[in-house]
Design goal:
Layout lengths: L1 E5 L2 E3 L5 E8 L7 E7 L6 E6 L5 E3 L7 E6 L4 E6 L8 E8 L13 E2 L3 E5 L2
Parallel strand pairs: 2-11
Antiparallel strand pairs: 1-3, 3-8, 4-5, 4-9, 5-6, 7-8, 9-10, 9-11
Length: 122
């Protein structure tokens, strides 16, 4: 099983980025998929998720700025983030859980990528 995130980096406040997560080794299409971020010393924070049928949820802090999508044919999950703020700075993980996500999120359940750093700074 492998999930590999890409697309992170340094972005100026107000900027945008698109994260991708390519999966292999499990049945991608049946899993609930999420983007979860973590700031050093703080808890994991699930900012958005998408069901196998395409229903989505967003944390209030990213609502209207984030769009999650999945391409089951490509085994790939995406996150489009716009109007980025310094407080969005974190390591972003993609997670795949079946059948439903655990709350609070934990790396002990499901499949997780290694994470990609997103830094929002001028």
């Amino acid at each position: 099983v492998q999930l590999v995130e890409s697309g992170g980096g340094l972005v100026q406040p107000g900027g945008s980025l698109r994260l991708s997560c390519t999966a292999s080794g499990f049945t991608f299409s049946t899993h609930y998929l999420s983007w979860v971020r973590q700031v050093p010393g703080k808890e994991l924070e699930r900012i958005t998720g998408i069901t196998r049928l395409g229903n989505t949820m967003y944390l209030d802090s990213v609502e209207g700025r984030a769009t999650i999508s999945r391409d089951n044919a490509k085994n790939t999950l995406y996150l489009q983030m716009n109007t980025l703020k310094p407080e969005d700075t974190a390591v972003y993980y993609c997670a795949a859980e079946d059948p439903l996500p655990r709350w609070p999120p934990t790396k002990d359940f499901g499949y997780w990528g290694q994470g990609t750093q997103v830094t929002v700074s001028s």
